[in-house]
Amino acid sequence: MSQSAPLSFYDEIGGHDVFVRLVHLFYQGVAADEILHPMYPEHDMDGAEERLRMFLEQYWGGPSTYSQQRGHPRLRMRHVAFHVNPEARDRWLGHMRDAMDQLELAPLHDATLWDYLQRAAHSMVNTFEPTPPPAPKETP
Ligand code: HEM
């Protein structure tokens, strides 16, 4: 008698294609955000998009490519280099919310993912200092 494994959350919401769409829509918001955008590597936005996508896929039961390529996530540690104050967190979450709204997941799936993202984003805050002014542009 064969027993099939229960579907992972990753499979339930539609697998790879859905995570690709989620993260792509999210990064469109980030690209237009004057606080968040400067934090990201200017010449590697595709790489940043891929890293977040691989992490979320792995977290929700999809392929473990993230750890194969990047090692242990240690996300709080990896975010220490960035100025993640409540304003940055709320903007990050705002872009995620916009992206999720466009996915139109079933209500329970939406609530599950959103609850996780909110908790994860709150745990990433590493400063309450206000956002520093943008660095002056280099003159040639
Ligand atoms: C709270 C606001 C947040 C801000 C401002 C923020 C900002 C950043 C920045 C600037 C990067 C570097 C981009 C790159 O080169 O990969 C990054 C990487 C990353 N972030 Fe966030 N992040 C936030 C929250 C989160 C949350 C909630 C998660 C997970 C649910 C997350 C997961 C990741 C991952 C997986 C990477 C790539 C790590 C690596 O392998 O190097 N971030 N984040």
From TrEMBL:
<keyword id="KW-0349">Heme</keyword>
<dbReference type="InterPro" id="IPR012292">
    <property type="entry name" value="Globin/Proto"/>
</dbReference>
<dbReference type="InterPro" id="IPR009050">
    <property type="entry name" value="Globin-like_sf"/>
</dbReference>
<dbReference type="InterPro" id="IPR001486">
    <property type="entry name" value="Hemoglobin_trunc"/>
</dbReference>
<keyword id="KW-0479">Metal-binding</keyword>
<protein>
    <submittedName>
        <fullName>Globin</fullName>
    </submittedName>
</protein>
<dbReference type="InterPro" id="IPR044203">
    <property type="entry name" value="GlbO/GLB3-like"/>
</dbReference>
<keyword id="KW-0408">Iron</keyword>
<dbReference type="Pfam" id="PF01152">
    <property type="entry name" value="Bac_globin"/>
</dbReference>
<keyword id="KW-0813">Transport</keyword>
<comment type="similarity">
    <text>Belongs to the truncated hemoglobin family. Group II subfamily.</text>
</comment>
